[in-house]
Amino acid sequence: MKRSEVIWWSLSGLVTLVGCDNQQIAARDPQRQIASVSVLQSPPVERWYGPEQIERGNKFYQENCAECHKPDASGTANWREPDEKGSYPPPPLNGTAHTWHHPLPVLRRTVRIGGVPLGGTMPGFADKLNEQQIDDIFAWVQSHWSDEIYTIWHERNLQAGKRLTRHPNRPCSGLQACP
Ligand code: HEC
User: Fold this and answer.
1) Hey, which of 22, 51, 73, 174 would disulfide with 93, CB 3.0 to 4.6 Å?
2) Is residue 175 part of a domain?
3) What is the CATH number of the domain that holds 69?
């Protein structure tokens, strides 16, 4: 992996772990507020998964993720508060925390490598789950998201896909990441 790639992925990972307060940024930036509102007013976009994928994902999720993120994906209520060792608890994945801020390639990578390389505690699942099973899990996870949250995530995922396509040296595995 090239140095620039390592930095890029580390940054994405850090954002995944530490969180990003876009609401605060939006509150300071009226242009972004307007952009968010116009997204909310458009009709909901079609989801990338169907009912069978959600059902498969539910099974893999309950077997691998539920012990920490809770069977209903509600995670830990005070997910922003680190414990005495500085570790963050498992956040909700149900659309109430910031999982929806991250494009699919970043979410997949979080599950593959876990949080340990970035100072977190989540184990990696690269040796237990294949790409299809990880996608099934995110189908189930995203089925908990409202149309508004999903629509905003979809837009961010598209933008991230365009960035990945512009930089062909970077890993290219998003839904819309490769032409
Ligand atoms: C042993 C507990 C544990 C298990 C099992 C676990 N996680 Fe996590 N997860 C965490 C913790 C803790 C974090 C916060 C970051 C860190 O410390 O690594 C996290 C963070 C995440 C994030 C980033 C969330 C965000 O809002 O950016 C995602 C996505 C995620 N987990 C998905 C999963 C999925 C999917 C599975 C099952 C395949 C899973 N996790 C299994 C503990 C766990």
Assistant:
1) 73
2) no
3) 1.10.760.10
In a domain, residue 111? The reply is yes
Q: Does 120 contact ligand 1 (Cβ within 6 A)?
A: yes
The low-confidence residues of the chain, meaning pLDDT below 70, are 1-42, 164-179
> Are 122 and 90 contacting, i.e. CB atoms less than 8 angstroms apart?
yes
| Closest ligand 1 atom to 100 CA | 26
pLDDT in tens, 53-79: 999 999 999 999 999 999 999 999 999
Residue 129 is assigned to a structural domain of this protein: yes
User: What does the block give as tokens for 114?
Assistant: 């876990």
113 alpha carbon, distance to own chain's centre: 14
First-to-last alpha carbon distance for the chain, in angstroms, is: 22
Tell how far the Cα of 122 is from the centroid of ligand 1, in angstroms. Answer: 5
Domain containing residue 104:
3-166
Phi (first) and psi of residue 34, to 5 degrees: -60, -45
Q: Say if ligand 1 is within 6 A of residue 107 CB.
A: yes
- Please name the residue that has the structure tokens 């839904």: 175
171 domain residue, yes or no: no
DSSP 8-state class, residue 127: T
Report the separation in Å between the CA atom of 173 and the middle of ligand 1, taken as the mean of its atom positions. 20
Structural domain count of the chain: 1
